[in-house]
Amino acid sequence: MSAENDVLVLGGAGVDTVVHVPELPLPFADSYLIRPGITTRAGQTGDFLALGLHALGLRVHHLDLLGDDPEGTLVRALHAEHGIPLTAIPQPAGTKRAVNLVDPLGRRLSLYDDTRAAPEDRLPEPVVRELARASRHTHVSISHPCAFALPLLREVGVTLSTDLHDWDGVNPYHEPFAHAADVVFVSAARLTDPEAVLRRVAERGRASVLVATAGADGAHLLADGELHHIPTVTPPAPVVDSNGAGDAFAAAFLFAWLAGEPALRAAHFGAVAGAHACTVPATTHAPITREQLLERAGDDRTGTTARGHEKEE
C-alpha cells in the first residue's frame, strides 16, 4: 500500500520579521531610515521546506506546535493558501518568531525569540506515530520538541533527514539529530574542516549521505564514503536575499533522492534550487517549481514525479 504523504515535516513553523539594513554588521546609531521597510510574514525553516517540497509536486504534511496568537494565524493561513496540510499542537508560550536583518548583498542575521518555548514542550507520540507511518520520509527540524520524537521515528522505520543549520560541529545539542538521520544537511559557515565533521557524523551515526552547503563556494557532499565538491549554479536573476536558500537546497535534494536519483545528481538539483531562492525577496514565497527545477538542472523528464511514476494529468 502506498504512503499517504511523501514527506512529513516536523517542526520549524514560525514567523519572521524581515528588516532591511544598509550593511552587516550594523554600526551602532541612534536610528536608521530603511527601505524597502519592515515586513512580518509566516515562514521559518520547516515552513520553507514544506513550501519547497509542495512546489515540486510532493505530498507534504507539516506538524509543529503553534500558539493561539497573530503569528500562529499567519502560519495557518500560509499553509491553507498553498493547500499544505498542517497539524498544529497548541503552544501556550506562543508561535516561534524571529527578526531577520538583511543587507543589500542578501546576507542575513537572525535573532530568535527564545521565550516562545518551554523545556516540557513535546509533540504527542500518537500523532507523530500516525503521521510518520503514513509518510515515505520524515524531515526533522532541530527544535527542542523534535529531539524527543527521534527514537519513535526510528522505531516506526521511516527514513529521516535533518538540517543542522550553522552547527559548529561540536555543540552536543545537534548530535542526536545528526546521528539519527539517513540524510544530513549542515551549513559550512562555522565549520573549519567540513570534511572532518561530515566524516565524524557518518562514522557515529547512520547517514550515508551528508551535505555541507557553503554558499558561494558551492557544497561538500559525502556519499558512500566519498567526498565530492558541488559547484554553485548561476542564479537566474540578481541575488537579493539568501534567506531560505538552505531549505530550498534540502527540498530539491530530497525531491531527487526520493525519486532514486544518485546523491551527486540530487546535490545538483539542490544547488539549482538554492540559487533560485537567492533571487527571491525574503518577504515573498516563490519556491522553484518542478518544471523550473528540471529545466535548469538539464533534466528532460518533465513527466516524472519524485515518486518515480508518470505525472497524472
From TrEMBL:
Domain Carbohydrate kinase PfkB: 50-285
Record's compositionally biased regions (Basic and acidic residues): 292-313
Stored Pfam families: PfkB
Family annotation (PROSITE patterns): PFKB_KINASES_2
Region (Disordered): 288-313
Any one Gene Ontology molecular-function term assigned to this protein's record: kinase activity
Keywords of the record: Kinase, Transferase
PANTHER family linked: PFKB DOMAIN PROTEIN, SUGAR KINASE
Record-given protein name: Adenosine kinase
Species classification: Bacteria, Bacillati, Actinomycetota, Actinomycetes, Kitasatosporales
